[in-house]
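Quick one before lunch.
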Amino acid sequence: MGKGRARPITLYGEPVLHRPCAAVTDFGRELARLVEDMFASMQAADGVGLAANQLGVPLRVFVFDCPDADGTRRRGHVVNPVLEPFPRRAATTRETEGCLSVPGPHTELRRASLATVTGVDLEGRPVTVTGGGYLARCLQHECDHLDGVVYVDLLSGRRRRRILAEAGLAS
Ligand SMILES: [Zn+2]
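Model of the zinc ion complex:
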């Protein structure tokens, strides 16, 4: 990687962020370029994760560059990710979360403390990513994006309006 080009990031309110993305079926050069551009865009924006619809592309792909529970930096991409269901009494943590599509504010949100995503890579080979700490949060946040859900949608109406106003976006 490293040869990608940073593209503008879509903002909350743009329809592509509020609709489920389509499964990737074409594993050609264009997908490789998209993933390179996603890494470049995430890095340019100083983010820890990015979903394809944040670049306006409605496909099920995300990238991450995020610390795990023990502080280890984990970097990768997942195509057609599926978030494994959580056990009924899964541990949760309430921590600060933000989103490049809602620039500026951060707010606390409860998420499962451990998450596993399965999917494939650029070549269609199976991948599994399991993470705790901030990576667990990131994996859940990015899978939500691909389902058309932005983290502020998980907040109460009042908190959502406050966060969107803080970001200068209409609710
Ligand atoms: Zn986000």
